[in-house]
Amino acid sequence: MLLDTHHHLDFLPPSARGVFLAGTRERGVRVVAQTLIPSGHRELAAEAGEWPEPHALLSVGFHPWFIGEDDHADAELAVLERAVRSTRFVGEIGLDLSPRRAEAVPRDRQVRVLAAVLDAVHRAAADTPEPYVLSVHAVRSADVVLDLLEGHGDGGERVVPVLHRFGGTSDDLTRLVRMGGCVSVHPAMLGTKKGRAYVRQVPADRLLLETDLPTAPRRLGRAPDGPTELGASAAAEVAATLRSTVDTLCALRREDVTADIARTQRRLYGIEGDTAGQA
Questions:
Q1: What percent of the chain has pLDDT over 90?
Q2: Is 274 part of any domain?
Q3: Which residues in 111-129 are b (16+ Cβ under 10 Å) and which e?
Q4: Could you report the per-residue pLDDT of 88-111, keeping only the tens digit for each?
Q5: What CATH number has the domain bearing residue 10?
Q6: 13 preceded by cis ω (within 30°)?
Q7: Does residue 188 sit within a domain?
Q8: 278 in any annotated domain
Q9: CA distances from 245 to 53, 68, 188, 252 (A)
Q10: Residue 194 sits in which domain range?
């Protein structure tokens, strides 16, 4: 079983989601459905009863690009506080301190929201034996994100950060591993010298897979681009991307890491089976 730990299911039209999930299941794939704001998670959860089993793992998130003014942020944080009592998957959360994004959502507001999310997660995690898993966006901010995680950290026992499309420094990567964190490997990481060095540096039992697909919200077109075709093509793309990523990882590291990834999927997400599923 291959697990896409960072997928944007909500970027597919509702009518295509069931077809997509049936298609991924047939290919030996499951996805963790990240959300951009907590109320988006609530909407997906309400829809999930219509999906084929086993369906997506739903993650409650508050993406830094989508943090509004303080009143909006506080209302969404209240939704998240309730949601983390029903799901232990949290994402997409984090910081984006690139100039354009920090101008749109000031650094102080981003940091305040992320700290509040971590507070809520750690309160909820104290009451459950299974780890909470965070999918973390960290653009030009890995050191700041790691400072916040360390301030809330427990060595990866109850809360495990997974940095999505990791782009920090080698020292940041060492800090992440030491605090019990993981890296979800996006194909783009494998196309750069730095990314390839990082995926060799990470211990095999801290590697996970991701696609970050779809890259943008998808719209239904006229036939033959209806919900069935859109859902089926999206499932095929995710499965092919995951399989290609695994193959490239194994080649770069000169070792077969599929069993290590499968064990980490099982430990963090409860996903059974190896990563040799049909793709």
A1: 90
A2: no
A3: bbbbebbbebbbebbeeee
A4: 999 999 999 999 999 999 999 999
A5: 3.20.20.140
A6: no
A7: yes
A8: no
A9: 26, 35, 10, 10
A10: 2-269
User: 190 with 252: CB under 8 angstroms?
Assistant: yes
CB burial of residue 270 (10 Å; 0-12, 13-18, 19+): exposed
Please give the Cα distance from 93 to 90 (Å, whole number). 7
pLDDT for the residue numbered 220: 80
Give the strand order in the sheet containing 182-185: 89-96, 132-139, 159-164, 182-185, 207-209
Over residues 196-208, the pLDDT tens digits come to 999 999 999 999 9
How high does pLDDT run on average in the chain?
95
Beta pairing class for 132-139 and 207-209: unpaired
Of 155, 76, 156, the closest CA to residue 109 belongs to 76
> Do residues 126 and 157 lie in contact, with contact meaning Cβ atoms separated by under 8 Å?
no
| Largest separation between any pair of C-alpha atoms in the chain | 52
Q: Quick: pLDDT tens for 50-75.
A: 998 888 999 999 999 999 999 999 99
Place of tokens 């399989």: 243
One-letter amino acid for residue 118 of the chain? L
- In angstroms, the CA 39 to CA 144 distance is 26
For residue 12, being part of any structural domain is answered with yes
